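User: I'm curious whether this sequence folds into something compact or stays loose and floppy. Could you predict its structure so I can see for myself?
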Amino acid sequence: MIYEGKEHVLFEEDVILNDLVTKFYIIEDEITRKRMPRGPKTYIQMFKDRYKVELSEEEFTELKDYALNEYITDIPSQIQVDFQSGRITRLRDL
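Assistant: Here's the prediction. I'll summarize afterward.
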């Protein structure tokens, strides 16, 4: 995957992964609103045109699967871990 002009591995860096998930949801919203074709090629092209991110179909499929099935549950799980470890004591600390 090419991200910000450099080669990266998709699940290697959390900051990049979270940024890509955010961009995925922005693209998802636009595709839905404009009733565009929902195939991987549409998303891949929009990532490239808008964000200069180049993904293979396999990388896109992995990103989409993560965004739709795991990302939503990762955030609450991390908050719970932080509460239990004492890193945060109230939601305002987030």
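Summary: The longest strand covers residues 2-3. The longest helix spans residues 57-85.
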